[in-house]
Amino acid sequence: MIPAQFEYARPSSVQEAVRALAEAGEDAKVLAGGQSLIPMLRMRLAVPSTVIDLGGVSDMRGVRDDGDALAIGAMTTYADVIRDPMVREHAPLVVQATETVADRQVRHMGTFGGALAHADPAGDMPSVALALDMMFDIEGPGGRRAVPAGEFFVDYFTSALSPDEILVSVRVPKLPGWGTHYEKFNRVAQAWAIVGVAAAVRRSGDTIEKARIALTNMGPTPVRARGVEEALAGAPATAEALASAAARADEGTAPTGDVSASSEYRSYLATVLTRRAVAAAAGIPQDG
Amino acid sequence: MSRISLKVDGVRYDDDVDPRTLLVHHLREHLGKVGTVVGCDTTNCGACTVLMGGKSVKSCTVLAAQADGQEIETVEGLAGKDGSLHPVQQAFHDSHALQCGYCTPGMIMAAVDLLAENPEPTDDEVREGLEGNLCRCTGYQNIVRAVQDAAAVMRAEVPAPRDAGTEPMEGTRGTTSPAAEEVAR
What we know:
The complex is a heterodimer. By secondary structure, chain A is an alpha+beta fold. In chain A, 34% of the residues lie in helices and 26% in strands. In chain A, helix 10 packs antiparallel against helix 11. Chain B contains 6 helices and 5 strands; from the N terminus they run E-E-H-E-E-E-H-H-H-H-H. Chain B folds into 2 domains: 2-77, Roll (Ubiquitin-like (UB roll)), CATH 3.10.20; 87-184, [2Fe-2S]-binding domain (DNA polymerase, domain 1, Orthogonal Bundle). In chain B, strand 3 and strand 4 form a beta hairpin. Chain B starts with a strand and ends with a helix. Chains A and B meet through helix 2 and helix 6 of A and strand 4 and helix 3 of B.
């Protein structure tokens, strides 16, 4: 399968990229690592007039310490995110979830920002972004703006990015004192999540102070499990309290049914995986 | 057309390519590197795996234009100039780590990449490391065995570039290298 013809531009700076995107018009597509876009080009699900390849924008690669947060360049590959000592120290949830994405080859090419901008509801990064309350730095012809994760994911494969904007970097808050865990359910290696749960929990002794839970593939966008978060705030850190809180995981979700799972099964999985994710994040022993 | 310059298996190639050309098609159809095969064409099977800048990638999911300026290594570049097989190739041969052989070029390149990062993997780490490569004859038992055999052979060699030329001194450098790699990790 061969993609349809397109014009190709390889800018070397963010400014050049924004200009090239403006010139190319609405039918242009931005290419990051290409691990989602190239399959779509091959199957001609995407037929852009111009492809703007960000591979030459070296400023968009790498991780920077930004005080209370880490700034991860949108073009940093999954493999480089996993290896980065600052990410490993301050955002272990990002490392853990990234390790579950696809396979080594895809992780060598695929990028952190590309995965987020793609806004695939079955992708692992979007729910992690929600649970950690990441901030998205976006650049367009009008300059730079910042969008919180909670407003970035709009619909299936649709983000808050305008057609003339580029996701430049993502700020990941350091969460000292929080425990985190990503629980993913899939049937075979390298597959997409049937359901995934990203959990960040802060404990104070025997009590859960605060929990942020986000669900993968439980609707058109990643979604916070607000019912569970409410139930956990101030709850004792026990298996019983957790089980009753996790039972609310599917509140406000709209999972679809497909060949991998019915919507009912996804709802059930969300409760089980939420229980496991919070237990692991908060260090609550589980019977089974 | 885009002008690209690649180094493939040690040889430099400058070409004009249609931007939509996939790296695997460029390698096979323009450069004659038919040792790298197209399996599924959907980023699943890994048969087209090559090393780009020393890291494994699925060449059906890279545009040739994206690879501009990069060094590519295919299965055809692994053997020594005298035809001696790379330890991973030799181990796949010795362990009969293939049935139909179609996945083998990609399996071998993925294994080379894995062992460069983790010279002493557990069986589970080998399986996890090769999750991007499918063998539909289900020959995984022998593949894991071959990768472990190759890892053992490579650990006994000096961790220097393969084309370094001189043979390692038996015993001394060979036995200390795994420890040195352990420290490096």
